[in-house]
């Protein structure tokens, strides 16, 4: 996994701090012989203290320059030649994530000393995303059986999509007994979302190499990707018990906390290391945006699009949440999905765009992506897999099937407003109005409650649950616009069908005032006749609270000539309506 391709702002400051702390005794009026360094380069490297190692090497360079000036033996005293010092400094910069500086140093070494560092150059290029340049350089290296060259080439051809060469190298690594080659193969399984295959390789290697503690981190990553967050944390704790300062392990622990609890809990794990210029700083900054529910997304994520793979997905999700579907689509349209969550997000983006534009083509693309995940043998019994299948059937408008899948995962989303909203729509479409009404009334998200679709469905459910006045209240709380007109039409027609004639009459009366068409008058006339029938038969529904005078009042406001005739008839038979 590439964690950072750019030098962090604090990298140079860390270098300066380390340097000054080891050479702080150099000032003063008179020159003094320095005390021998208290550690060796090997000590720093074993401890993975690359900042300390780099400072040690630079201190050695300073000593050599001074002794050369004094006529001493120079680098011979330190046991390292200048060429070795330069290579070790480049090595430290690479391991500190400063790939550009390491690349520059290796180029200088190659140019000045004609030293064979092509593979080092190619590895730096790989981490900088310069795949074409790295591939060209590696292809000209004549060492056919070099294991590092084989591993690097394996990942380069994967990045470049050179299928035949990749397949040949895959077979070579699969048949190799080398631990390094097996680990490289496992990492490829991980990159291709073949997590169980990666787990199998890691477990085999760990059986014979129990002191390879970092493999526990790789296993934990695989379990995380398979949604086994508790298991991931259990394996990760084995590594953290011995390496509690590992940035990658701490970050993964935060991700597990995010999945098991919430973003606030996750943020506590990494807040102390997020801004100290540590290795993996880009990854930490990316994850803080996620943990904070998108806060700072536009400031941080665009710069990480070619560095952290998930940045593209999370920026697209941010745009979707902001209602900027076109921007989300612009990010996702060139993405070729390789994992379930990528297929799901691409499907959601196309569904949103299809609904926005009224495009059947986008809706069809959404159906295909979501159905592919939901019907997959590896995903069909997972929560995302069932959500995907429910979404696909929703787009197919096969709502009975939607209910089958949503019922199977309902217990995981009891208080989820988005889930309840979609569940209510499916319930309403299949005639389960009471259950739909209850689900809609549970929703607290005002962004959802202010949606036109929410108001339409809620009004329909109120009417079919014998609460027509609640449906009328939904209308009168809305602003007067084209959407309110559609809501009024729904209330008028649904109330008429459900024999809630009084609210239907009020709705048709309002429609007639807004649009005095024959259809609206006929609806109003029929609703008023229904009210009279309800009053005459002493029915439990469809009657006005204020009695017959309210019906006469509505008819009197009509400009249609038939209204006066109806009023005369009502007055003639008024004794029947008391």
Q: In this structure, how is the largest beta sheet organized?
A: none
Mean model confidence by pLDDT: 87
Overall radius of gyration: 35 Å
- How large a portion of the residues is in β-strands, by DSSP E? under 5%
Envelope shape: elongated
Amino-to-carboxy terminus distance = 81 Å
Unreliable stretches (pLDDT < 50, length at least 5) are 1-38, 69-79
User: Helix/strand-derived class?
Assistant: mainly alpha
Q: Estimate percent helicity.
A: 55-70%
Beta strand count? 0
The number of helical segments is: 34
Quickly list its features:
34 helices; disordered N terminus
Structure description:
With 578 residues, the protein is mostly helical. It contains 34 helices and no strands. The protein has helices spanning 11-22, 41-46, 50-70, 75-78, 82-95, 99-113, 118-127, 131-139, 147-160, 163-174, 179-191, 195-208, 215-225, 229-240, 247-260, 263-270, 281-291, 297-300, 310-321, 325-332, 340-357, 360-374, 383-396, 399-409, 417-429, 433-442, 446-449, 452-464, 468-476, 482-497, 501-514, 518-536, 548-556, 561-572. Helix 5 (82-95) runs antiparallel to helix 6 (99-113), helix 15 runs antiparallel to helix 16 and helix 28 runs antiparallel to helix 29. It starts with 10 loop residues before the first helix and ends in a 6-residue tail after the last helix. Belongs to the IFT56 family. This is Intraflagellar transport protein 56.
Question: What would you say about this model in short?
Answer:
This protein has helices spanning 11-22, 41-46, 50-70, 75-78, 82-95, 99-113, 118-127, 131-139, 147-160, 163-174, 179-191, 195-208, 215-225, 229-240, 247-260, 263-270, 281-291, 297-300, 310-321, 325-332, 340-357, 360-374, 383-396, 399-409, 417-429, 433-442, 446-449, 452-464, 468-476, 482-497, 501-514, 518-536, 548-556, 561-572. It is mainly α. Residues 1-38 and 69-79 have low confidence and may be disordered.
């Amino acid at each position: 996994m590439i964690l950072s391709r750019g030098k962090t702002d604090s990298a140079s400051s860390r270098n300066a701090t380390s340097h000054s702390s080891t050479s702080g005794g150099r000032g003063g009026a008179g020159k003094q012989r320095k005390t021998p360094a208290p550690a060796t380069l090997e000590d720093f490297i074993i401890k993975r203290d690359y900042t300390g190692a780099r400072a040690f090497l630079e201190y050695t360079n300073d000593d050599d320059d001074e002794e050369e000036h004094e006529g001493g033996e120079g680098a011979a005293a330190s046991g390292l030649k200048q060429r070795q010092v330069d290579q070790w400094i480049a090595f430290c910069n690479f391991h500190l994530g400063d790939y550009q500086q390491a690349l520059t140093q290796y180029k200088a070494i190659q140019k000045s000393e004609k030293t064979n560092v092509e593979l080092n150059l190619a590895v730096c290029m790989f981490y900088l995303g310069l795949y074409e340049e790295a591939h060209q350089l590696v292809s000209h290296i004549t060492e056919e059986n070099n294991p590092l060259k084989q591993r690097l080439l394996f990942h380069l051809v994967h990045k470049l999509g050179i299928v035949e060469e990749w397949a040949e190298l895959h077979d070579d690594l699969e048949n190799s007994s080398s631990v390094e080659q097996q680990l490289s193969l496992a990492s490829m399984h991980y990159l291709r979302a073949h997590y169980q295959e990666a787990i199998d390789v890691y477990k085999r290697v760990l059986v014979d190499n129990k002191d390879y503690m970092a493999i526990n981190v790789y296993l934990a990553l695989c379990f995380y990707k398979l949604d086994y967050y508790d298991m991931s944390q259990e394996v990760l704790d084995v590594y953290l018990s011995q390496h509690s300062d590992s940035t990658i392990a701490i970050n993964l622990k935060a991700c597990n906390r995010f999945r098991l609890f919430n973003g606030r809990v996750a943020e506590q794990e990494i807040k102390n290391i997020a801004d100290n210029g540590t290795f993996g700083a880009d990854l930490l900054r990316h994850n803080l945006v996620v943990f904070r529910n998108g806060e700072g997304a536009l400031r941080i994520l665009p710069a990480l699009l070619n560095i952290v793979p998930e940045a593209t997905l999370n920026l697209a999700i941010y745009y979707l949440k902001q209602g900027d579907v076109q921007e989300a689509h612009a990010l996702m349209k060139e993405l070729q999905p390789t994992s379930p969550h990528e297929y799901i997000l691409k499907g959601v983006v196309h569904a949103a765009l299809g609904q926005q534009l009224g495009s059947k083509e986008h809706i069809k693309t959404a159906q295909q992506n979501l159905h592919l995940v939901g019907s997959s043998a590896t995903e069909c019994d997972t929560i995302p897999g069932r959500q995907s299948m429910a979404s696909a059937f929703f787009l197919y408008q096969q709502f009975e099937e939607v209910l089958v899948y949503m019922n199977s995962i309902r217990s995981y989303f009891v208080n989820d407003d988005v889930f309840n909203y979609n569940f209510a729509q499916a319930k309403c479409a299949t005639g389960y109005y009471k259950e739909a009404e209850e689900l809609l009334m549970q929703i607290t998200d005002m962004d959802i409650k202010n949606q036109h679709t929410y108001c339409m469905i809620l009004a329909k459910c109120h009417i079919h649950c014998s609460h027509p006045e609640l449906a009328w209240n939904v209308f009168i709380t809305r602003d007067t616009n084209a959407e309110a007109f559609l809501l009024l039409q729904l209330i008028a027609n649904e109330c008429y069908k459900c024999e809630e004639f009084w609210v239907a009459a009020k709705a048709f009366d309002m429609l007639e005032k807004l649009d005095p068409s024959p259809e609206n008058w006929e609806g109003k006339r029929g609703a008023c006749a229904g009210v009279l029938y309800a009053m005459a038969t002493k029915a439990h529904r469809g009657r006005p609270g204020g009695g017959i005078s309210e019906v006469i009042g509505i008819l009197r406001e009509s400009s249609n000539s038939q209204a006066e005739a109806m009023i005369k008839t009502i007055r003639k038979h008024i004794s029947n309506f008391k």
